[in-house]
Amino acid sequence: MTDEKKPRRRPRSDGQRNRENLLNVAKAAFTAGEVDIPLDEIARRAGVGIGTLYRHFPNRDALIEAVYRAELDRLADAAPVLAAQHPPVEALRAWMRLFVDYIAAKLVIAPALNGLAGGTGALYAQSGTVLQGAIDGLVAAAVASGDISTDIEPVDLLRALAGVSNYAAGPGWETSAKRLVDILIAGSRTSAS
Amino acid sequence: MTDEKKPRRRPRSDGQRNRENLLNVAKAAFTAGEVDIPLDEIARRAGVGIGTLYRHFPNRDALIEAVYRAELDRLADAAPVLAAQHPPVEALRAWMRLFVDYIAAKLVIAPALNGLAGGTGALYAQSGTVLQGAIDGLVAAAVASGDISTDIEPVDLLRALAGVSNYAAGPGWETSAKRLVDILIAGSRTSAS
DNA sequence: TTATATTCGGAGGTATGCTCCGTTTAACAA
DNA sequence: TTGTTAAACGGAGCATACCTCCGAATATAA
Predict the structure, then answer these.
(1) Torsion over CA: A63, B116, B76, B18 (sign)
(2) Rounded alpha-carbon distances, angstroms, from residue B101 to B25, B44, B110, B140
(3) What is the pLDDT of residues A107-143, one digit of tens each?
(4) First-to-last CA distance in chain A?
(5) pLDDT below 50 — which residues of chain B?
């Protein structure tokens, strides 16, 4: 349990630079829909050898996961900001819409993500925690203000949203997703109690 | 250009039998979580050569799609049955829950499905139509009976459901999905109008 | 400047997706 | 029943992608 780390040396600057390069190239490729791009190609575009890629990310899934997690963190960070700017229910709504936007515009890695056959459990468990922390705060605030029923499980909303992002095919899906957000908010209100 | 088909002969019986064998074996494998099973192995289990598999399904995606579509049809067929057995809103709710059950118990091919990198659009468009037909009927009935707001797009509900199925990780996800169905129904009601 | 831990990078082993084509077999006609 | 033929069978083999391994290069600390 003692997680002693002996950073005898500072991490090498080129190492970190290469790592970020790889991450950026991978994100760009996935966003462009090149989900099945060979790892060799990613390494080439990033200007590094294949060996370097594999040291940073032991396998394909690890790379996808890293890209995914980085974007996820940014989304999670937006929650407190929105909470400070809007009343509870609207903050929740805004964040859910942001979720949709994010997936739509910048992150089409959803298919790639689901391609993580097998190990999804662990990944979702980990990263789900991050997002859950974000939405938990928003929901808690909305419950406290009396706008939302107390028996709503934040994770339910998260799942619906995640689903929509996967279904991101066909024209007009984005407005459809926005509508869905409204339905979810309406369904969570205390009105009918 | 005239694509006249002259079915001079009936399709061979062994051909169809082999095709169904392959489909069953593939479904079983996917359901068992063996998403990455080599196609050679599927052919072996079905008792046919690899060449036979590839004639029926030109590539891996085609096989997955075939399995997917077959199951989808069965789900769609359940809609009219439920509509005949329950009042509109309850029929809708029941069908949505069935959707969840189906994915949960018998169809863990969701990850495989999403692995159809690239061509998802076409597939979803096609098969989405089938499901949409099913839910359209249910929603129309509920709208007609005045239970549900008229501005609900059935496809929205579909998307949320599809999403949940992808998020099928972690314990208790199933009850969570059921809760979500209730939220969606509640959010679609006319009460607040 | 010297020492050394860390990173780099690509050749190559392994395995999987898919093709090709000679052989086998079921359907049809006489 | 028997011959003809179009269609299905099946596996050897090629292309390619993932990943490992290890000598060379290099940034950091003394």
Answers:
(1) negative
(2) 21, 31, 13, 23
(3) 444 444 444 434 444 555 555 677 777 888 888 888 8
(4) 47
(5) 1-6, 105-121, 192-193
Å between A43 CA and nearest CA of chain B: 20
Separation in Å, CA of B184 to nearest CA in chain A: 6
Q: Which two tokens stand for residue B97?
A: 């829950």
Closest in A161, A170, A183 to B124, CB measured? A170
CATH number of A60-188: 1.10.357.10
CATH of region B62-188: 1.10.357.10
CB atoms within 10 A of CB B150: 11
Residues A12-58: name the CATH superfamily. Answer: Homeodomain-like (1.10.10.60)
* Residue with nearest Cα to nucleotide D8 C1': B15
What is the chain A residue with the closest CA to B189? A187
User: At how many degrees (to 10) do helices B60-85 and B39-46 cross?
Assistant: 70
